[in-house]
Amino acid sequence: MKKVIVITGASDGIGAAAARRLHAAGHTVVVVGRSPQKTRAVAEELGAESHIADFTRLADVTRLATELSAAHRHIDVLANNAGGMFGGHTRTVDGFEKTFQVNHLAPFLLTRLLLDTLLASGASVVQTSSTVRFTKTIDLDDLDHDRHFDEVHAYGAAKLENILFTSELHRRHHADGLAAASFYPGNVVTNFGSEVTSPVIRFVRRVAASPIARRALFSTPEQGADQLVWLAEGRPGTDWRSGAYYFRRKPTKPRNPQAADVDLARGLWERSEAMLAQQLRR
Ligand SMILES: NC(=O)c1ccc[n+]([C@@H]2O[C@H](COP(=O)([O-])OP(=O)(O)OC[C@H]3O[C@@H](n4cnc5c(N)ncnc54)[C@H](OP(=O)(O)O)[C@@H]3O)[C@@H](O)[C@H]2O)c1
Predict the structure, then answer these.
(1) Cα(59)–Cα(62) distance, rounded to whole angstroms?
(2) Measured from the CA of 10, which atom of ligand 1 is nearest?
(3) Which of 76, 91, 199, 237 is most buried, by CB atoms within 10 Å?
(4) Is there an atom of ligand 1 within 6 Å of 99 CB?
(5) How remote is the CA of residue 193 from the centroid of ligand 1, in Å?
(6) Is the pTM of this model over 0.85?
(7) Strand 245-247 and strand 250-251: pairing?
(8) How far is CA 17 from the centre of its chain?
(9) Is 236 near ligand 1, meaning CB less than 6 Å away?
(10) What is the bridge-based pairing of β-strands 250-251 and 124-128?
């Protein structure tokens, strides 16, 4: 079955690789990106529709949702893939910590604003998460990391939030026909972490710059896109299980006990809605 597949973060890396493969397989791919030049380059290469939105601006996300709902009465897959690790504690124009907003709050808002279309379409919503093995505890009273900021922890917390969002989306809406999954793409050589000052991430990027280490320890964007493509093309309930977190196409228990905390998932949803009350009141 040919599908309408919206991919955020499709201007580069894993998202662009997934867009190319899904387009080649005959699906209608909608390319969403931040950089106008990079986004248009991918869209022109594929002859695909494109939209620009900077997730550090919630007004951009709201406009994106309006554009997508106007252009598509039916969306089969929303791939919330845009994200990354950023250096320093920065507040967005909306007043939220940047890592939290770009990786969690913005895709949460986009999904909520598209929910009627997604439900009517029986859609799948796919989150590009990460390993959450080293992620410290999420504190619902400090989602902006004001008490303590560490860029690696802020990123890990946001990727854990992707998993919690997936399970809560499943809990709330699977009975209405919507399916959700998150996945860990592995260590993929992309632009990921290029703005980061953390010595650990800089070391990892230096290792990845060596061709031998890269081949042995890292995946290409095409390999990193494999699960996004597989989840987007697959049938939930047959090929994959809604609500689950995947690694190498297998449902996997995330290596962090908070990922299975149902109350935390519900609390995160409620806090996110409260933070976005203004945008959701439209
Ligand atoms: N690479 C890895 O090893 C790895 C591992 C685990 C998870 N991930 C996740 O995989 C996803 C894709 O990352 P990648 O590795 O493919 O990195 P990438 O090459 O840097 O791609 C990231 C994508 O997100 C977009 N983006 C970044 N900031 C944005 C913003 N403020 N607003 C809107 N879009 C924004 C980028 O747009 P521009 O082109 O304009 O920068 C780009 O399209 C991310 O969610 C990342 O957390 C990556």
Answers:
(1) 5
(2) 43
(3) 76
(4) no
(5) 9
(6) yes
(7) antiparallel
(8) 15
(9) no
(10) unpaired
**Number of Cβ atoms within 10 Å of the Cβ of 233:** 19
Q: Spell out the per-residue pLDDT of the chain, length 282, in tens.
A: 899 999 999 999 999 999 999 999 999 999 999 999 999 999 999 999 999 999 999 999 999 999 999 999 999 999 999 999 998 999 999 999 999 999 999 999 999 999 999 999 999 999 999 998 888 889 999 999 999 999 999 999 999 999 999 999 999 999 999 999 999 999 999 988 888 888 888 888 888 889 998 888 999 999 999 999 999 999 999 999 999 999 999 999 999 999 999 999 999 999 999 999 999 986
Asked if 233 and 25 touch (Cβ cutoff 8 Å), the reply is yes
246 Cβ closer than 6 Å to some ligand 1 atom: no
Distance 8 CA to ligand 1 centre (A): 9
Ligand 1 atom nearest to CA at 219: 3
What separation in Å is there between the alpha carbon of 82 and the centre of ligand 1?
Answer: 5
- Any atom of ligand 1 within 6 Å of the Cβ of 55: yes
* Residue at 183: amino acid letter: F
Best of 7, 54, 55, 128 for a ligand 1 pocket test (most atoms within 8 Å of beta carbon) = 128
Q: Is 246 a catalytic residue?
A: no
For the chain, list the domains and their CATH numbers: 4-280 (3.40.50.720)
DSSP collapsed to 3 states, 242-255: CCCEEECCEECCCC
Distances (CA, A) of 34 to 133, 209, 244: 29, 25, 28
Of all protein residues, whose CA lies closest to atom 14 belonging to ligand 1?
13
Query: In 96-198, where does DSSP find H-type helix?
Result: 98-100, 106-113, 115-121, 151-173
